[in-house]
Design a protein that fits this description.
The protein has helices spanning 15-25, 45-53, 61-64, 67-70, 97-108, 111-115, 118-130, 140-145, 147-157, 164-175, 180-203, 210-215, 226-256, 259-267, 272-283, 315-319, 353-370, and strands spanning 28-32, 38-42, 57-58, 137-139, 293-294, 298-300, 303-305, 311-313, 375-376, 398-400. It is mainly α and 402 residues long. A three-stranded mixed beta sheet has the order 1-2-8. Strands 4-10-9 form a three-stranded antiparallel beta sheet. It has a two-stranded antiparallel sheet with strand order 3-5. It starts with 14 loop residues before the first helix and ends with a strand.
Length: 402
């Protein structure tokens, strides 16, 4: 069977057919991404779990980031690390540095603190829905799915909500295929803003707010320095809204394309909270997980990935592996989708997963209660997915409220 070495230009618009072809050929293949970067792409579930935790695999971008240039075509504009202060966060580190940072952040980001946020999340969702009217045609991402989580994360970080549109623009540039100039400008603007914000919080008296607790977190005399705080704020800000925006948007699209499943949730709203796992499995907000590389040779399902290679894990592909989930391409809101990899696996499992689940539960519960006859206001094939192999999310989601 011929190996697919170049992912098609329209890969981000329909990755599932590509993943099916790759998965049928083997657990991991050497491919060229749409912009030409050569990587080893993992598409099967069992091998994805191994790749996400294997000691032969590193996330240390300071040591392995040069591989982006090594494995890019000569003519490619390699995306260099333009703002080091945005890169020294947990996702780009291995133990023991990762262990130290995660411990300090976890101390401030407790399950109790998250659950205490439920009334405020419900209040924000209700305020947004109150602005919508029966019969209106709106972009659900713009009107609801984006402002809900960005408002929550801005409040958590103590950032004025007036800045939320700036953050959305900067985030889009940094996570999509922007030009080097666009990425440079967005990173510089983000880093500059967060430096001022961190400095202000650090100079103020500690209080009970989340970000103040993070800035002043102290474990046996250890605390985050300014550069680490800036990078951590960046990670929390971007991950704290991107994941939920696209979880909500992708879930609503899936429901509108599967009216029988929508009817089940309308009839049994108590299933909504648990259905988050199925939406995360079927069309999760992250396609290809963040940067990894092999420090040593790694065997995955009989295939050896050599040392010094970029290893990419498609969470979306792994979650649709028919060896793991029956009828893996079908939405079933009653399915037990436990074990999906949408939030990762191992020590880098998403710290904000409980918050994303809470926001999803509140958002979908209130949306379906207020607009039970919500419909899609565009043909599904006309919808455009964001130009990113990392983020799996739509540009817009036009719906008619009823």
């Amino acid at each position: 069977m011929t190996t697919l070495t170049q992912l098609p230009d329209d890969y981000v618009q329909n990755p599932h057919d590509v993943h099916d072809m790759l998965r049928a050929e083997g657990p991991v293949q050497e491919v060229h991404m749409p912009r030409g970067l050569k990587v080893w792409l993992v598409t099967r579930y069992d091998e994805a779990k191994i790749a996400l935790t294997a000691p032969q695999v590193s996330k240390n971008i300071a040591e392995g980031g040069h591989l982006m240039a090594v494995h890019s075509p000569p003519s490619a504009e390699v995306r260099r690390e333009i703002e080091p202060t945005l890169a020294v966060h947990m996702l780009n580190m291995d133990p023991p540095h990762h262990t130290r940072l995660r411990k300090l952040v976890t101390k401030a980001f407790t399950a109790r603190r998250i659950e205490l946020m439920r009334p405020r999340v419900q209040e924000i969702a209700a305020e947004l829905i109150a602005k919508l009217n029966d019969g209106d045609e709106v972009d659900l991402l713009e009107a609801f799915a984006f402002p809900l989580p960005i408002t929550v994360i801005c409040e958590l970080l103590g950032i004025p909500i007036d800045n939320r549109d700036d953050f959305r623009e900067w985030s889009n540039q940094l996570l999509s295929f922007g030009t080097p100039e666009q990425v440079q400008a967005a990173a510089s603007a983000m880093a500059g803003f967060l430096y001022q914000h961190v400095t202000t919080i650090a100079e103020a008296e500690p209080n009970d707010t989340f970000f103040s607790a993070l800035v002043h977190a102290d474990d046996s005399g250890d605390r985050l320095n300014t550069e680490e705080l800036i990078s951590m704020a960046f990670l929390l800000l971007v991950a704290g809204h991107e994941t939920t925006v696209n979880l909500i948007g992708n879930a609503v699209l899936s429901l509108l394309r599967n009216p029988d499943q929508l009817q089940i949730l309308k009839d049994r709203p108590e299933l909504i909270a648990g259905s988050a796992e199925e939406f995360l499995r079927l069309e999760g907000p992250i396609n290809v997980a963040t940067f990894r590389y092999t420090r040593e040779d790694l065997e995955l399902g009989g295939v050896t990935v050599p040392a010094g290679e970029i290893l990419m894990v498609s969470l979306v592909a792994a979650n649709r592996d028919p060896e793991k989930y029956a009828d893996a391409d079908q939405l079933d809101v009653t399915r037990s989708a436990q074990g999906h990899l949408a939030f990762g696996h191992g020590i880098h499992f998403c710290l904000g997963a409980p918050l994303a689940r809470l926001e999803f539960d509140v958002a979908l519960t209130q949306l379906l209660a207020r607009f039970p006859n919500l419909t899609l206001a565009a043909e599904p094939e006309t919808l455009v997915w964001r130009d990113s192999t990392l983020i799996r999310g739509l540009h817009t989601l036009p719906v008619r409220l009823a």
